[in-house]
Write a structure and sequence with these properties.
Helix content: 25-40%
Shape: globular
Distance between the termini: 8 Å
Structural class: alpha/beta
Radius of gyration: 23 Å
Largest sheet: 7 strands, mixed
Number of helices: 15
Strand order of the largest sheet: 8-7-18-19-20-17-21
Strand content: 15-25%
Amino acid sequence: MKQVAIIGGGITGLTAAFRLQQRGIPAVLFEAADRVGGVIQTVREGAYLAECGPNTILETSPLIGELAAALGLEERRIDTSDSAENRYIVRNKRPVKLPTSPLGFLASPLFSCRAKARLLAEPFIRRAPADTEENLAQFVRRRVGREFLEYAINPFVAGVYAGAPETLSVREAFPKLHALEQRYGSLILGQLLGARERKRSGSVSKQNAPKFSFDRGLETLTTALAKRLKEQIRTGQAIGKLTRHNNTWSLGQAGEYSAVLLALPAFRLAELQLTHKAKPISLSMLADIQYAPVASVVLGFRREDVAHPLDGFGALNPEVEQLNSLGTIFSSSLFPGRAPLGQVLLTSYIGGLRAPHLVTKNPDEICDLVMEDLRIVLGVNGEPTYRHVFVHRRAIPQYDVGFGRFKALMNELEQEVSGLYFAGHCRDGVSLTDSIVSGHKAADRIADNLKQRD
């Protein structure tokens, strides 16, 4: 059996390579950059610990805990503190706790009495035809009204996709939401009845899933994976051309392989030159997948210079509030060891499809825009004691209306072209958890198929 080639050294490619190693399948991972890990990058400066990309892992699948255990990271795992369960939505320029129970919802000032009454009608709203593809804004306005769109869904979408409800597809970006309506005819009834199915499958809803990191940040995970795969990783080696002949994939001077897993962002996939049976395979249409640009702004402050108690996960900013940033995570409230004693660490995000031009500004200007919001929303008075700005020009793929054609292309090629596989955030979901599960499952598909051929 020849080795498997994995193109792309982000968390998806690393997870796939490790899973293949577990199953006794030799693999080589190629990464164009000089480091693996992709957007997962932890910066440690003195007593500050800043995350440049994701801040937490959601344990919605048992595969997440199994991966940490297999890497020997269980003792280094840190779960979010109980005090970090509160989530805030900004309304009238002030953070308001997101209600977590029916009674809390009725008493919450986040939504008007009219909006609360409108929600009671949701179980009686007729489901959309199964073949109709709505954008998220249409779906939410139809089922629960405009106010929930503006003060619940819009900020949530900014936090997950840095995107716009007016363009995201319900069916593709939020398939579980679409499935709830189609199966139960109601989101409220679907949440109640669907809990039984999640319990049987072992999966956990994102709302209730444990959130965790590691004592030295999320890069602990990718570092551990890289250590296990050390002899199999080739950094600084971009692969641009792949040819299938004689039941093997040729990567030119990089060698020949039984199978190839493409774990790249869509805009990189679109640049690849693939040939199968002397005919080119075009992935150019994947360049049409839109990516939201995001700047991560990590700021430290003296505790006494922040009026808000920071007793939660963070605060999201609805677009109607007309603030500069998308929201802020209370990083030092989530995990210990993120800031020096007597100080706090806040991670804010700016840009997205809401204001993509803001990420083109210089770091000082970006910090000033975030500081303006923090003073208004959280009562920050002093100047930062620490700062770190990291810009992702193409951060998060947008699962917009029509996205299904991109997934169909990748699925069809997997079926029609022997030994070609796809995985990653432009196919299987944009969260860190989605990427890990995608890599794991792709490796299992490869291993199963290779064993059938032997």
